[in-house]
């Protein structure tokens, strides 16, 4: 058994060569919910409160961006409207009249979690935000996300914006089948420019996902935080043919160190 220390907590994660995680040890983690899945064997290695209703925060943007990628509009230019800028931070800082490629909006929404990018995606893809939210909910039902309902594309808290860890796992497993999504979700940063004539306007999106900077096997996918949801993380790591996905909700411990320690045990089993 290997002793692993996280901030404010010491845990022993016991894993066999078949990555059988010691449930008793993981039960002590100070997280609202946790699901760990081996994507090669398709086995859920650990599950805690996987059907619990949770606020998905910006993990919502996994759905927003996969719908954008599948829209066939990734190469199109989007003219930013006043409605697209009516969002709360985090934002890229677009102004009315800015012209931005859809592909850059998707990267801004995934990497930095910019809410103006997410809202612009919704309005451009569907014509208005309400219709896009309907698309999100239709896709959720198609994926078997029976404990999920979206009311906005950004991840704002609300009574009608909820999911479950298992549903978020289903959503992510679907999204990572798309190579464009995977390429974007593992980027540390992205610099892009408005296409307006005249003065060059630059934007840079930097990731909030510290695993991408600190753990060599991390390959995405999305972070989230609101006061209601707490610190959330969907993380994936691959090593020597092993492939592991984690959904962690409302973490009261260091989510980066905790995820890294879990990955190390699973990937090295």
Please describe what this structure looks like:
There is one protein chain. By secondary structure, the chain is of the alpha+beta class. Helix content is 32%, strand content 26%. It contains nine helices and eleven strands. The strands form four sheets. It has a five-stranded antiparallel sheet with strand order 4-3-11-10-9. The relative contact order is 0.19. The model is unreliable at 1-18 (pLDDT under 50).
Note the main attributes of this structure.
disordered N terminus; alpha+beta; five-stranded antiparallel beta sheet; two-stranded antiparallel sheet; 9 helices
What's this, in brief?
By secondary structure, the protein is of the alpha+beta class.
Strand-helix topology:
Elements: E1 2-6, E2 9-13, H1 23-27, E3 31-38, E4 43-48, H2 61-70, E5 77-79, E6 99-101, H3 102-112, H4 115-126, H5 129-142, H6 165-175, H7 179-185, E7 189-193, E8 202-206, H8 211-214, E9 218-226, E10 230-239, E11 242-251, H9 255-267
Antiparallel strand pairs: 1-2, 3-4, 3-11, 5-6, 7-8, 9-10, 10-11
Helix pairs in contact: 2-3, 2-4, 3-4, 4-5
Q: Give the strand tally.
A: 11
| Number of helical segments with 4 or more residues | 9
Count of distinct structural domains: 1
Assigned CATH superfamily: DD-peptidase/beta-lactamase superfamily
Shape: globular
Q: Largest beta sheet: what is the strand line-up?
A: 4-3-11-10-9
N-to-C SSE string, H for helix and E for strand: EEHEEHEEHHHHHEEHEEEH
Topology-level CATH name? Beta-lactamase
Mean pLDDT: 92
| CA distance, first residue to last residue | 12 Å
CATH architecture: 3-Layer(aba) Sandwich
- Oligomeric state of the chains present here: single chain
Model regions low in confidence, pLDDT < 50 over at least 5 residues: 1-18
User: How would you classify the helix and strand content by structural class?
Assistant: alpha+beta
The level 1 CATH classification is Alpha Beta
- Estimated share of beta-strand residues: 25-35%
């Amino acid at each position: 058994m290997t002793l692993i220390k996280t901030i404010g907590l010491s845990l022993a994660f016991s894993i066999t060569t078949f990555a059988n995680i010691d449930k008793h040890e993981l039960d002590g983690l100070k997280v609202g919910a946790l699901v760990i899945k081996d994507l090669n064997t398709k086995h859920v290695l650990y599950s805690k409160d996987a059907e619990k209703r949770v606020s998905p925060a910006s993990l919502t943007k996994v759905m927003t961006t996969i719908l954008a990628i599948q829209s066939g509009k990734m190469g199109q230019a989007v003219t930013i409207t006043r409605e697209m800028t009516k969002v709360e931070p985090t934002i890229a800082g677009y102004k009315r009249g800015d012209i931005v490629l859809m592909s850059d909006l998707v990267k801004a929404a995934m990497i930095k979690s910019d809410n103006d990018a997410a809202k612009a995606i919704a309005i451009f893809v569907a014509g208005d935000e309400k219709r896009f939210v309907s698309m999100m909910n239709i896709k959720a039902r198609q994926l078997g996300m029976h404990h999920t309902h979206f009311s906005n594309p950004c991840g704002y808290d609300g009574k009608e914006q909820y999911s479950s860890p298992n549903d978020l796992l289903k959503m992510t497993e679907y999204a990572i089948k798309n190579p464009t999504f995977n390429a974007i979700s593992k980027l540390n940063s992205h610099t892009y420019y408005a296409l307006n004539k005249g003065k060059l306007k630059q934007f840079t999106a930097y990731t909030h996902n510290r695993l991408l900077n600190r753990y060599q096997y991390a390959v995405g996918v999305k972070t989230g935080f609101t006061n209601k949801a707490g610190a959330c993380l969907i993380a994936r790591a691959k090593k020597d043919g092993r492939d592991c996905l984690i959904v962690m909700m409302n973490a009261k411990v260091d989510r980066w160190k905790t995820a890294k320690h879990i990955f190390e045990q699973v990937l090295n089993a």
